[in-house]
Amino acid sequence: MRWIDLLHRWAGGVVGLVLATLGLSGAILVFKHQWLGWLPGAGDAQRQDVAALAAQMDAALTASGAAPRSVLFPYADFGLARRSYAEGAGAYADQSGQVVAQWTSKWDRVELWLFDLHHHLFLDDLGATAAGIAGLIGLIFVITGVILWWRLRKTFKFRLLPKRMSRPAIVTHHRDIGVVFAPLLFLSMATGMLMVLKPVSTAVFAPGQNVGALQAPFAPPDVEGGALAVDLDWTAMFTAARTRYPGAEIRIVALPRKPGDLIQMRLRQPAEWLPNGRTLVWFRPENGAMIDTRDAQAMPTGIRAYNAVYPLHAAKVGGWLWKLAVASTGLVLAMLGSLAVWTFWFKRPRPRTRPARPLAIT
Q1: How much is the pLDDT for 216?
Q2: Taking the complete model, does pTM exceed 0.70, yes or no?
Q3: Any residues with CB less than 8 A from the CB of 82 and at least 6 apart, and which?
């Protein structure tokens, strides 16, 4: 048991700050649409009729400057479309096509750099891998923490905050609040780790297959497209997608980034948990003809299970109750991680010095 205690304390002292950062940023991002509600048009009712969607696409493509790389259409709880451009630039536009906010870099928008911090630690792919490894270590924390708590379970007391800021009080609080949130902490870190560490997610959801097997069914068709036409009939394209998948919500249109690319449309069918869905439709950029589709609901069970990881992690399902549960878990993780670092590096107990024994007089 001693080696478990040493492993738990040393790993917490080193990785705790990373987990605290991930927990706090994740808790804030859970309510992103709510704290962006001050933007003009953010509270407008979502429109999914093809005429409104086509008008938004035309407005995005005819706006001054370069054409966007993609257009993300409004959600049920957020009435603005997001246009994404090269080099991290972008804009929010209402459903009439009027731009209400614009930026040239992710550093201009709190929600963008906060998202990058949570997912990449500002280090791109390297940071994403580091965050995934931190999540894996976090799983070990949960398991070893429960094991260590079991010995002292009779002293359990539920407190949201430590009784005092002394090391014994913080350690006791850390142990007790940690075991209360252990199931949610385990789920949060497991889902975060599975999204990032592809070898692990492949082993879990597609055992025996090569890395990338979970993404392979969504690869674009091997067809070369032409130049992007300026007069595409977006109404006809949206109608064709809706005819192929009745009742689906049209979420994203991604335009070609390089010569030969196709137009990709992303849809969310009613049974899909992902907020933007994984049902795909491809069109020719020169004339808008439909080429191919991918039905996310027809995918193997492992892929459909993997598609549920992000909605669980980001509280995109379950309503307000699950949002509160996920946000609370993030705040608890931030508290546990930061206090673990503080007590380990700055509140370590001083070694006891034994008093000198008097010399015996013979």
Answers
A1: 94
A2: yes
A3: 71, 72, 90, 91, 92, 93
Q: What is the pLDDT of residue 338?
A: 87
Q: Which of 174, 57, 196 is nearest to 130 (CA)?
A: 196
Kind plus residue range of the DSSP H or E element containing 35 = helix 32-35
Other Cβ atoms less than 10 A from the Cβ of 3: the count is 8
Query: With the CA atoms of 139, 144, 145 and 149 taken in that order, what torsion angle do they form, in degrees rounded to the nearest 10?
Result: 150
pLDDT at 165: 85
| 123-to-119, 133, 292, 321, 350 alpha-carbon distances in Å | 9, 14, 35, 33, 37
Q: Which stretches of the chain score pLDDT less than 50?
A: 362
Which CB contacts under 8 angstroms, 24+ apart, belong to 347-356? 347/166, 347/167, 347/170, 348/167, 349/167
Residue 298, Cβ density class (10 Å: 0-12 exposed, 13-18 middle, ≥19 buried) = exposed
The dihedral of CA 151, 157, 158, 159: what is its sign? negative
Count how many residues are written for the chain. Answer: 362
CB 77: neighbour CB atoms within 10 A? 12
258: left (phi over 0), alpha (psi -120 to 50) or beta: beta
Report the sign of the C-alpha dihedral through residues 220, 222, 223, 225, in that order: positive
Beta strands in the chain (DSSP E): 70-72, 81-84, 90-93, 99-103, 249-254, 263-268, 279-283, 290-294
Under a CB-based contact definition with an 8 Å cutoff, are residues 119 and 192 in contact?
A: no
H helices, E strands: number in the chain? 12, 8
Amino acid at residue number 249:
E
Q: Largest Cα–Cα distance in the chain?
A: 110
Return the residue matching tokens 């808790």.
Answer: 27
User: Which residues, including other chains, have CB under 8 Å from residue 191's CB and lie 6 or more apart?
Assistant: 309, 310, 312, 313
Dihedral sign for Cα atoms in the order 323, 326, 328, 331: negative
Q: Assign 3-class secondary structure to 164-177.
A: CCCHHHHHHHHHHH
DSSP three-state, residue 100 = strand
Amino acid at 14: V
